[in-house]
């Protein structure tokens, strides 16, 4: 069983020197269009962790190959095949659950047909619950909390805020956005039946260039709060329109911390009125974690928006070390029983039943820097402050996965 001490821990090898093996990782995410800044940030996280892990040990040398999928399922499959043809045996993808659904199906079929070229799929950000339920796949491992887990944590926090009376839902029109809106309705009804849902909108994924008409409707509804799972351009343009219209609503989000998000939140002037549920921010961790953050920022010129990438890469390396191989059929049995202290938080582990990683979750608010806060975001002078915490054991959700395991 894997055991890691966090992203900043030193991973050492023992025993006689052995030949170094190159492990190619195909990074498949948007590198053009509205999702490009988000995809580029993810790529920097994986490239940085490849550098860190290559410096820590000499058994495996990680190399990251980048492919643009344009948040398109078909482009995702083309990129996956290109990566495999280039020698990649690990595929990583995160932004867009529709792309993730296509990729996990592709990987299952590819591995069945190509037993000597099998691959592992590391999902670092696609959070549609179906990916670890009815669409679960032995070769797929998700290191982000699924959207139900995130909504559970977010609505548990919202339940304690009596000032919330009217909520507006605005989400992207694909599987993830539909999951967010459905669970928001269900969980608010169970936890705060007094809250009125005064609007429920979906918008085409990364295709809306002006959210002003939607903001007009939110203002007209009298909503005091907005719940959104929007990410990348769809979040940034939503908040930009809110700032320009002077909308004085509180936002409860999944991805306000994504690239460009903090800058547009700062423009709204809504100090500590934009909340994000996540695996923790730059100011959340202990001294070692914050030192790691400082090194990451110095090397990449961005803040860490994907701490789960650190978890995934550490787990992947340790699984390979324990297996003594990078072959998917040898690594997967080790990875599915990974236990590791997450980059931020107290405990984390992969559940073998569905390959979902569970970890401590946090709710943070964004506002002016305060004593004890070390990092601001995007030069705004504002930073993330933890206001709620959910321990790992309280994030567990059931699964309907009936995993087809290779014989």
Automatic annotation (TrEMBL):
<dbReference type="InterPro" id="IPR028081">
    <property type="entry name" value="Leu-bd"/>
</dbReference>
<keyword id="KW-0813">Transport</keyword>
<dbReference type="InterPro" id="IPR028082">
    <property type="entry name" value="Peripla_BP_I"/>
</dbReference>
<dbReference type="InterPro" id="IPR051010">
    <property type="entry name" value="BCAA_transport"/>
</dbReference>
<keyword id="KW-0029">Amino-acid transport</keyword>
<feature type="signal peptide">
    <location>
        <begin position="1"/>
        <end position="19"/>
    </location>
</feature>
<keyword id="KW-0732">Signal</keyword>
<protein>
    <submittedName>
        <fullName>Branched-chain amino acid ABC transporter substrate-binding protein</fullName>
    </submittedName>
</protein>
<dbReference type="Pfam" id="PF13458">
    <property type="entry name" value="Peripla_BP_6"/>
</dbReference>
<comment type="similarity">
    <text>Belongs to the leucine-binding protein family.</text>
</comment>
<feature type="domain" description="Leucine-binding protein">
    <location>
        <begin position="22"/>
        <end position="363"/>
    </location>
</feature>
<dbReference type="GO" id="GO:0006865">
    <property type="term" value="P:amino acid transport"/>
</dbReference>
């Amino acid at each position: 069983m894997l055991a890691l001490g966090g992203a900043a821990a030193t991973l050492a090898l023992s025993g006689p020197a052995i030949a170094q093996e190159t492990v190619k990782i195909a990074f498949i995410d948007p590198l053009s269009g509205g999702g490009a800044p988000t995809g580029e940030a993810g790529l920097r996280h994986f490239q940085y962790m490849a550098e860190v892990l290559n410096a820590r040990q000499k058994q495996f040398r990680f190399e990251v190959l980048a492919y643009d999928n344009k948040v398109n399922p078909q482009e995702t499959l083309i990129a996956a095949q290109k990566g495999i043809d280039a020698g990649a045996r690990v595929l990583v993808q995160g932004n867009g659950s529709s792309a993730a659904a296509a990729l996990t199906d592709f990987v299952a079929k590819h591995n069945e047909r190509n037993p000597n070229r099998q691959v592992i799929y590391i999902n670092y950000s696609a959070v549609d619950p179906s990916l670890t339920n009815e669409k679960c796949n032995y070769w797929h491992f998700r290191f982000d909390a699924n959207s139900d887990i995130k909504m559970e944590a977010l609505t548990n926090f919202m339940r304690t805020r009596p000032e919330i009376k009217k909520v507006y839902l605005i989400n992207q029109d694909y599987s993830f956005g539909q999951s967010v809106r459905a669970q928001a309705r269900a969980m608010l009804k169970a936890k705060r039946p007094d809250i009125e849902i005064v609007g429920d909108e979906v918008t085409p994924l990364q295709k809306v260039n002006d959210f002003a008409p939607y903001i007009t409707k939110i203002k007209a509804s009298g909503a005091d709060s907005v719940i959104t799972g929007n990410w990348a351009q769809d979040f940034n343009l939503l908040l930009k329109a809110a700032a320009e219209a002077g909308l004085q609503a509180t936002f409860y989000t999944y991805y306000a911390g994504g690239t460009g998000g903090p800058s547009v939140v700062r423009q709204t002037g809504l100090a500590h009125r934009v909340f994000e549920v996540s695996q923790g921010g730059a100011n959340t961790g202990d001294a070692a974690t914050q030192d790691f953050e400082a090194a990451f920022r110095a090397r990449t010129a961005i803040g860490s928006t994907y701490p789960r990438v650190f978890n995934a890469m550490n787990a992947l390396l340790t699984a390979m070390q324990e297996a003594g191989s990078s072959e998917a059929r040898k690594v997967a049995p080790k990875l599915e029983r990974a236990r590791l202290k997450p980059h931020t938080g107290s405990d984390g582990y992969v559940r073998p039943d569905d390959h979902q990683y569970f970890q401590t979750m946090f709710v943070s608010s964004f506002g002016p820097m305060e004593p004890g806060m070390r990092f601001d975001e995007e030069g705004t002078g504002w930073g993330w402050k933890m206001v709620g915490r959910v321990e790992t054991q309280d994030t567990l959700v059931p699964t309907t996965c009936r995993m087809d395991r290779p014989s």
